[in-house]
Write a structure and sequence with these properties.
single chain, mainly alpha
């Protein structure tokens, strides 16, 4: 139960802050409209950092089904608790997205572009190409998980510094690869808010782009599994 609650609240906070910054800089009548991609990228890193230091001791602060599945595949996480992790992550992501809509309802109502509204909730490619979009999500998640695993190689790491390193990883992936697909690198981060977008009564919201939705789910899982396989194959 602790794992479920921790992952649910942690992922809710992640999406509240992560989708929140996108709403903050893209929706009309927001006081920070036009803040740009640098603000979004740093804020997403912080959105991971904050719940990570709150719930790191309780659940390991995965907040990401791809990471959870990869850790289970290598034996770090027991398969018996994987459903608790993923259920918490998906529900938390949905709730976080609902909170963003409630808080920014006035700004959503003042924004006409359906694509901008969808972009608050879920990711999408700058150049649609199924193969390359899938590869982008896989590679971005590979870097994320491989680097997270690599934190163990830092000698004499002070307690809590690992969370700051994860912040750096998220910002690095976003700034280097984020322009390709919006760097979901996390199935819950995209799927939970996309479901919220589909269900919420958002004025003029348009389509939820379900045709693309499998890419930010499958790509991260592939990348995460590849990362742990390579990491564990290296004779450290």
């Amino acid at each position: 139960m602790l794992i479920f609650i921790s992952e649910m609240i942690g992922t809710m906070l992640l999406i509240l802050l992560g989708d929140g910054v996108v709403a903050n800089v893209t929706l009309n009548k927001s006081g920070m409209k036009g803040g740009g991609s640098v603000q979004i990228t740093f804020a997403w890193g912080l959105a991971v950092l904050l719940p990570a230091f709150i719930f790191g001791q309780a659940s390991g602060a995965s907040f990401n089904p791809a990471l959870t599945l990869a850790l289970a595949a290598e034996g770090t996480v027991a398969w018996s608790v994987v459903p608790n992790y993923i259920a918490g992550q998906l529900i938390g992501a949905f709730l976080g997205a609902v909170l963003v809509y409630v808080l920014f309802k006035g700004q959503f109502d003042a924004t006409e572009e359906a694509a901008t509204k969808l972009g608050v909730f879920s990711t999408g490619p700058s150049v649609p190409n199924t193969g390359l979009n899938l590869l982008s999500e896989a590679v971005g998640t590979f870097v994320l998980v491989f680097a997270i695993k690599g934190i163990a190689n830092v000698p004499n790491l002070a307690s809590g510094v690992d969370k700051l390193l994860v912040f750096g990883i998220i910002v690095s992936v976003g700034m280097s690869l984020g322009g390709l697909t919006g760097y979901a690198i996390n199935p819950a981060r995209d799927l939970g808010p996309r479901i919220a977008h589909a269900l919420l009564p958002i004025k003029g919201k348009g389509d939820s782009n379900w045709g693309y939705s499998w890419i930010p789910v499958v790509g991260p899982v592939i990348g995460a599994l590849a990362a742990v396989l390579l990491y564990n194959a290296i004779p450290w």
